Amino acid sequence: MYESTKKFSFVVFGRVISGILQGLFFLIFAYLLSPNDFGEISYFIAIAGIVSIISRFGFNQSVLISRSKVNLKLVNEINLLTLIITSIAGILLIPFNIFISILCIGISFFTMSQHNLLGSKDYKFFMVYSIVKGILMIVVSLTLFHFLQIEGIILGMAITNLSLSLPFIKNLRLSRFTNIKSNIKFFLNNFGIDTSIHLTRSIDKIIIVPLLDFTSVGLYQFNLQILLGFEMLPIALHNYLLSEESSNQKHKKIEFFALLLSIIVIIIVIFLSPIIIPLLFSEYSDGILGLQIMILSLLPLTLGSIFSAKLQASNSKNSGTAVIVKVISFVILLFMLGQFYGIIGLSIAILTSYVIYALYLGILLKK
Q1: What is the pLDDT of residue 254?
Q2: End-to-end CA distance of the chain
């Protein structure tokens, strides 16, 4: 139990500190930028994120599981295929914006790098890279912001991600793609899981801009970034459990602790946000109630992470369908509630979609 707790603490500490640093990164620029400009930078980052998610095709999840099961031949093929596809996607983005293109590639490479480390159970190095990334992203982006403004922020994020992708680059080996075709269902399932975790964090900005405006995106993103900062806990839990459950290791006490911690965080945010935000971020005060609603999503997020890891580790062919339920419900609710109720509607849409997602995964797990 002690050794398991120690390993889990590396993943959690890396994720939590990284989440805090990422949250600090966005809060710094929320302070420096108007809600309108903050909404614009969030929109550009969302474009890079969506292309990265689609182009890497859930291979980060696939490589984690394959490494945990010591299927190194498949690991090599996955890494090489990811390099090819994400590079092509980045090149296609160049006519739109070269800085977004570089960021897209950087996000994909760093994500693959971290999941290779998790699959190898190099939890300590995972923690180190996570924390260093958070620190460098603040320093490099702030420096370039003074020279290039908004594009400097994007370039700083891209440079940070690329510079810390060494574990992925080191793992690249020339290989024939002899095992890809026979694992298509495995890849599709993991693509569904990866998309369910990450796509809704980016696609929302693409929808909100034409519905409302950049200012609304700025207020929404400010609240969402606080949720995402705390969301590092369920993400860390998912990554750790996926690696451990793939090796037939169970951790009931850790799951209970994660759920309890989520409830504590929710209570703290609800009570402190009306005090802290008007003092430090007065331009974002209109979004306080939305934040109090949105932070409730942390509980179904944690439950969903537990259920998802168990289903993936058992090679369930149905778990990937959860992404369809989550994304469709989220998009529909976003259109319905966001258009008429603004920030409050957007927050309810997020909370409801996460509840639906967790319930659906729970039903699949009981089958």
Answers
A1: 78
A2: 29
Q: What's the gap between Cα 179 and its chain centre? A: 28
- Which 3-state string (H, E, C) describes 72-138? HHHHHHHHHHHHHHHHHHHHHHCCCCHHHHHHHHHHHHHHHHHHHHHHCCCHHHHHHHHHHHHHHHH
Under 8 Å between Cβ of 322 and 267: no
The pLDDT value given to residue 156: 96
Domain range for 350 is: 2-366
What φ, ψ does residue 177 adopt, rounded to 5°?
-85, 70
CB atoms within 10 A of CB 134: 21
What is the DSSP secondary structure assignment for residue 321, as one 8-state letter?
G
Residues 6+ apart with CB under 8 A from 12: 233, 236, 237, 240
Q: Do residues 119 and 103 lie in contact, with contact meaning Cβ atoms separated by under 8 Å?
A: no
How many structural domains compose the chain?
A: 1
Which parts of the chain register pLDDT below 50? none
Q: Are 347 and 294 in contact (CB under 8 A)?
A: yes
Q: Are 75 and 63 in contact (CB under 8 A)?
A: yes
Q: Which residues contact 314 (CB under 8 A, 6 or more apart)?
A: 245
Least Cα distance to 246 among 82, 110, 117, 61 occurs for 61
DSSP string, 262-316: HHHHHHHHHHHHHHHHHHH-GGGGGGHHHHHHHGGGHHHHHHHHHHHHHHHHTT-
For position 330, what pLDDT does the model report? 86
Identify whether the C-beta of residue 309 lies closer than 8 Å to the C-beta of residue 238: yes
Whole-prediction pTM: 0.77
Within 10 angstroms of residue 181's Cβ, the number of other Cβ atoms is: 7
